[in-house]
Amino acid sequence: YVFRVDGHEHRVDYEPAESSTGLFGGNSNWRGPIWFPMNFLLVESLQRFDHFYRGELKVEFPTRSGQSMALWDIAAELSRRLTRIFLRGPDGRRPVHGSVPTFQDDPHWRDLI
């Protein structure tokens, strides 16, 4: 992706192995927005399997909890977890913005996700 503004070029390149910069932690396969669409597909698949099994198939969730849940309920819990990344917590901060003060506190940015 290339974004040009005021004569400057800003790039986000995909690197199929180790990152060329330490800025993103090395392994570029974990970088970027790819995991949210994958999670969506997982949630949708769990819902479809639950429909196929008519809610009768239960599996342990979370792992090693000893608690069994229907696939639909697991999909709902995963959806809640994914949503919470963007919702403000009790402290009024959005986890998606991390510790970046501009995104957490600036009235021009704090409501954008």
Describe this structure in words.
The chain is an alpha+beta fold. Helices cover 33% and strands 12% of the residues. The chain has two domains: 1-32, no CATH class; 33-87, no CATH class. It is built from three helices and four strands; from the N terminus they run E-E-H-E-E-H-H. The longest helix has 18 residues, at 35-52. The radius of gyration is 19 Å and the shape is elongated. It starts with a strand and ends in an 8-residue tail after the last helix. The model has no long low-confidence stretch (mean pLDDT 87).
In short:
The protein is an alpha+beta fold. It has three helices and four strands.
Q: What are its keywords?
A:
single chain, 113 residues, alpha+beta, 2 domains, two-stranded antiparallel ribbon, two-stranded antiparallel sheet, elongated
Strands, count:
4
Helix content: 25-40%
> From the helix content, strand content and strand pairing, which structural class follows?
alpha+beta
Strand percentage lies at 5-15%
Report the mean per-residue pLDDT as an integer: 87
Note the gap between the termini. Answer: 19 Å
Count of helix runs: 3
Uncertain residue ranges: none
Number of domains: 2
Secondary-structure element pattern, one letter each = EEHEEHH
Largest sheet: 2 strands, antiparallel
What would you call the quaternary organization? Answer: single chain
- Overall 3D geometry? elongated
Query: If you compute it from the alpha carbons, what radius of gyration comes out, rounded to the nearest whole angstrom?
Result: 19 Å
Largest sheet strand order:
1-2
